[in-house]
Write a structure and sequence with these properties.
With 153 residues, the protein is largely without helices or strands. The protein has two helices and three strands. It has a three-stranded parallel β-sheet with strand order 1-2-3. The longest helix is centred in the first third of the chain and has 12 residues. It starts with a helix and ends in an 82-residue tail after the last strand.
């Protein structure tokens, strides 16, 4: 009886969270096709070699998406303002000089991410993992780093 109770407790404790759901992979052609068809929810997706240049990302949903393999994300004409990147995986990505105004990055994995020269006005980085992130010359008013891990940043 005790063993059964312990197993049940362990199962509850180590049950995968929504952020650990299996990610469905999309390549550039698939992404562009879905975007053209009106889709704006790309949560829990892994985007591989997707080119976001010229696509307005305002209001797009990339919650818990793996975005580490996006094509040339640090280009100046990529607009990430007002995007929902809650829990997104962007560790080690070059995001220098991008505009993250009003972007939601709560719980995002941003370890060793390069934010040099990025605009973070009113960005929400609560609980974000920013260990060893590069924030040199990044700027912003009203940035929320509440409970964010900035160790080594």
């Amino acid at each position: 009886m005790i063993v059964r109770w312990l197993k049940k407790q362990l199962h509850r404790q180590f049950r995968p969270s929504p952020s650990h759901q299996s990610h469905h992979c999309l390549n550039n052609e698939q992404f562009q096709s879905q975007y053209a068809a009106g889709k704006r929810d790309f949560s829990h997706k892994t985007l591989i070699d997707v080119d976001l240049q010229g696509i307005p990302l305002r209001g797009m949903d990339f919650r818990y998406a793996d975005l580490r393999m996006l094509r040339d994300l640090h280009r100046e004409n990529i607009d990430l303002t007002h995007a929902d990147l809650t829990g997104a995986i962007l560790s080690g990505v070059n995001l220098s000089h991008l505009d993250f105004s009003h972007t939601i990055l709560c719980d995002a994995d941003l370890e060793a991410t390069n934010f040099s020269g990025a605009c973070l006005d009113a960005a929400n980085l609560a609980n974000a993992h920013l260990q060893n992130a590069e924030l040199k010359q990044a700027y912003g008013l009203g940035v929320n780093f509440y409970r964010g891990n900035l160790q080594g940043a």
